Request: fold
Amino acid sequence: MTLPRSSSRTLAAIFSGQGQPFCLKEFDKPRPGRGEMLVDVTCSTICGSDLHTWHGRRIEPTPCVLGHEIVGRIAAFGEQAPRMDLKGQILSEGDRITWTIAASCGQCFFCHRGLPQKCERLFKYGHNAISPGKVFSGGFAECCILHAGTGILKLPEALPDVLAAPANCAVSTVAAALRLAESVEGSVVAVMGCGVLGLNAIAMARHAGAARIVACDVSNERRVPAMSFGADDFALPHELRDLLGDLTNGRGADVSLEFSGAAVAAADAIAATRTGGVAVIAGTTTPGAFLSLDANDLVRRMLTLRGLHNYIPQDLVTAVDFLTDTVGKVPYDILTGGVFPLEEIEAAFAASSLLPGRRVALMPDGRV
Reply:
């Protein structure tokens, strides 16, 4: 049930640390400053990193408003706020949008070298402590202030909120991984980890024209969803090398993509890649996941290894275009874990914890 409140006040769910309940608190509705935009949040999904923070496995500055997989409608423009999106489409109040997970300055060393996600003045949504007048920077609230340097993209109305929200995190990361792999058309692709990222990678590789896709996961229960998203074959880790050998006359995968988050999966991805192939390691973001790598093997097999963390704005465009092209063709509904009003955020996080590999959605207007 939505709480009644003044139109000049707006609600945010404040996270203060592991084991402490979210505090639903009203604040004055913010006004966008120079280069900023005010967005009314319509949907935000709970990412795995949000869950890690909630459980204490990941530490964020607190108190904060979590949530970075967000869809909303433009409520107001600040002075000199952008009026065009990443595709050159005119932006207007009421437009339904999503945006990049981070805002970048566009001027620093890394921005000038095609790595805006490593900007020296990076601002990440859902990852910053609140301060007076700086509350609304995450998705688990009724509104969000978009900072200058954020990549904004209008959404087609045919793309539902619960499908569009993860586009600016999981699906864009997958788009970045395929970009780093260069062309997968006609290739044998191995995908390590069949959670949200891995399943989207399977579907995107299929959409991009991969010749054969081999999915790999430690859980045999993920065989069916992997195949339904477009995998041709499924292997448990100990079966992978033999299966790839049989399929490729002993060569291995042209492209291997790691989305598992385990160091052993990264090692398996490298081992599964053929001579001259490409392995993209994207899921292993926890410190201490050490790899043992034979430099002689790296040299003689002429491998290309690419590490990936987050993405560039064009990857968001690729992700949304991909979802738009495949909605109704790929069974994305198996990734949804239910919808909760913002006031039931505790129940939403509890449900998400019990549904690994699915996205639970929070909708501030109470739609369920």
Observations:
- The chain has a mean pLDDT of 94.
- Residues 313-326 form the longest helix (14 residues).
